[in-house]
Write a structure and sequence with these properties.
The complex is a heterodimer of chains A (110) and B (167). Chain A is α+β, with helices and mostly antiparallel strands. Chain A has three helices and five strands. Chain B is α+β, with helices and mostly antiparallel strands and 167 residues long. The radius of gyration of chain B is 21 Å and the shape is elongated. Classes of the chains: A alpha+beta (110), B alpha+beta (167).
C-alpha cells in the first residue's frame, strides 16, 4: 500500500478513484506513565512514553485506513491528512483520512 | 510554611534541570540539523515535473515535550499581565524542530532527498488540571520522494540527479 499526502503518486499514474477512506483510534493515557509524566512536568524534557503512545496510535489508525482501502480494491491512498483531538480529559482521538486510488506504473501505461 | 518550601524546591529544581535539559536539547537539534541539511523539505504540493521518482512514501515524526515547573509558573504570572510568553515559545520551537528532524531521519533511511507537502500539527497533551498546558505534541509529516538511482534506472533518467548526490 502506497501512502502519500500529495495529490499524486510520483512515478505512477492514477487509473481509478475509489473515494475516501479513514481510520481512527481513541487512546487513553496509562496511569503509571501519567505519574512519570508528572515528574517530567517539574524537570521538563521529552515525554518518551507519550511520544511512543501517539506514534503507536497513529500507526494503528493508518493500518485501519489501509485495511479499508484494500477492502475496496485500492493499492494506494493519496492526499492523506492526520488530525488529533482530545475527546475527554486524558483521552485523545487520532484520525487519518485520504483518498483511495488504484495506481499503475507510469512506464507500463505509456 | 511547608507548602512554601515545597513550592520553592520545585521552582529551583525546575529552573536548574529545565535549563540544562533545554540547552542540551537545542545543542543536539542544531547538530542534527546540520547533519540532515541535505534532506530538503518543501511545503509545496507538486514535485518538479522532471524528477525521476522511484518511490514515494509518507514519512512522519512526532515528539511530546514538557515544560518545566519554573517556566510553568512564569507563564502563569505572564497570563495575568498578558504579552509574550517566551517560556512557551522555546518549548514549541524545540518540539517543532525535533519533529521535523525525526521526519527527516525517516526519509534518510529510505534514501529520500526531498520531502514534499510537509504538514505540522500541534496539540497540547495534558490540559488537565487548571487548564494549564503542561506539554505539547508536534507531529510532522510529508511525502518523501526517493530518486531513481543511476545504476538501476535507465541511463537517460538518472543523469539530472547525479549532481545532487555529491552535495
Amino acid at each position: 500500500m502506497i501512502i502519500t499526502n500529495i495529490e499524486t503518486v510520483p512515478g505512477k499514474t492514477i487509473v481509478k478513484h475509489l473515494g475516501m477512506v479513514q481510520g481512527n483510534t481513541v487512546r487513553a493515557k496509562h496511569v503509571g506513565k501519567d505519574i512519570l509524566a508528572g515528574f517530567k512536568n517539574v524537570f521538563g524534557g521529552e515525554l518518551k512514553s507519550y511520544t511512543d503512545l501517539l506514534t503507536e496510535s497513529r500507526e494503528e489508525a493508518t493500518q485501519r485506513m489501509e485495511a479499508q482501502a484494500s477492502a475496496i480494491g485500492a493499492n494506494a491512498v493519496i492526499n492523506v491528512r492526520y488530525s488529533t483531538s482530545s475527546v475527554a480529559a486524558g483521552a485523545a482521538e487520532l484520525f487519518v483520512y485520504g483518498t483511495a486510488v488504484v495506481v499503475e506504473d507510469a512506464s507500463s501505461g505509456s | 510554611m511547608e507548602n512554601l518550601i515545597g513550592f520553592v524546591t520545585l521552582l529551583i529544581l525546575g529552573y536548574v534541570f529545565g535549563r540544562l535539559a533545554e540547552r542540551r536539547h537545542f545543542r543536539s537539534i542544531i547538530k542534527r540539523e546540520h547533519q540532515y541539511a541535505g534532506t530538503l523539505t518543501f511545503s509545496a504540493k507538486t514535485p518538479p515535473a522532471d524528477m525521476a521518482v522511484a518511490n514515494a512514501r509518507l514519512v512522519s515524526g512526532n515528539v511530546v515535550v514538557s515544560v518545566d515547573y519554573f517556566k510553568q509558573v512564569l507563564a502563569g504570572l505572564r497570563a495575568l499581565l498578558g504579552g509574550r510568553v517566551s517560556a512557551y515559545e522555546t518549548l514549541v520551537e524545540r518540539a517543532r524542530r525535533e519533529a521535523i528532524l525525526r521526519m527527516k531521519e525517516q526519509a534518510r533511511q529510505l534514501d529520500a532527498e526531498m520531502i514534499f507537502n510537509v504538514k505540522l500539527e500541534t496539540a497540547s497533551i495534558s490540559k488537565g488540571e487548571q487548564q494549564q498546558v503542561g506539554s505539547v505534541e508536534v507531529f510532522a509529516y510529508g511525502t518523501a520522494l526517493v530518486p531513481q538511482k543511476t545504476a538501476t534506472a535507465s541511463p537517460n533518467l538518472g543523469q539530472p540527479m547525479a549532481s545532487r548526490e555529491s552535495a
